Amino acid sequence: MTPHGPPILVLGVGNTLMRDDGVGVRLMEALASVEPALPGVEYVDAGTLSFLLLPMIEQCRALLVLDAAHLETAPGDVRCLEGTAMDDFLRTARCSVHEVGVRDLLDVARLTDHLPERRAFVGVQPLEIGWGETLSDPVAGALPVAVTTARAVLSGWLSGLAVS
After folding, report:
1. Could you give the 3-state DSSP secondary structure of residue 154?
2. Rg (CA), the chain
3. pLDDT band at 103 (very low <50, low <70, confident <90, very high)
4. The pTM is what?
5. What is the 3-state secondary structure (H, E, C) of 34-94?
6. Are 101 and 90 in contact (CB under 8 A)?
7. Residue 66 above 60 pLDDT?
8. Among 7, 31, 103, 150, who pairs with 90 as Cys (CB 3.0-4.6 Å)?
9. Rounded distance between C-alpha atoms, residue 132 and residue 109, angstroms
10. CA geometry: angle at 118 spanning 160 and 105, to 5°?
11. First to last CA, the chain
């Protein structure tokens, strides 16, 4: 909990040892470093996910997920999906290399009636998923756009939450 109530949760998903699969974590780190800091936002390295994250999701007031995604576009393309558009995308996305997928966590939160009403997904189309600690050039080059996109979502939520 933050002084202003439940946090807005930002999950950076991925394995930083698998090249572009780590873009969600790298994006979360870059977003967390942007000044000025946003009040009430909690940044979490979700790694390759597990059900241990479920209590955090159930207790947040809004959820932003950052991850590599099969967008069927050029490497480095960024897409933001909110609410039901996010849900629909996660239902049709290819299987994840992660232990538990974002879809699985959100399904459990939905079943327990704890799905955050405000939720969004910022995905980056990967080029290479394989051993390596650096992002491919197109994915690394997409980080500034992805940070701007994610920050806009958070800022919009904070503006909306302040008047709700």
Report:
1. helix
2. 15
3. confident
4. 0.91
5. CCCCCCCEEEEEEECCCHHHHHHHHCCCEEEEEEECCCCCCCCCEEEEECHHHHHHHHHCC
6. yes
7. yes
8. 103
9. 33
10. 160
11. 18
How confident is the model over 100-111, as a mean pLDDT?
84
What angle is formed at CA 128 by the lines to CA 126 and CA 132, rounded to 5 degrees? 120
Two tokens, residue 4 = 């202003």
Rounded distance, CA 20 to CA 115, Å? 28
pLDDT in tens, 6-56: 899 999 999 999 999 999 999 999 999 999 999 999 999 998 777 888 999
Given a cut of 70, whether residue 102 has pLDDT beyond it is: yes
102 Cβ contact list (under 8 Å, min separation 6): 11, 13, 49, 65, 67, 90, 96, 121
CA distances from 132 to 26, 125, 145 (A): 14, 17, 23
For residue 121, what is the DSSP state? E
| Token duo for residue 147 | 């940070």
> How many residues are recorded in the chain?
164
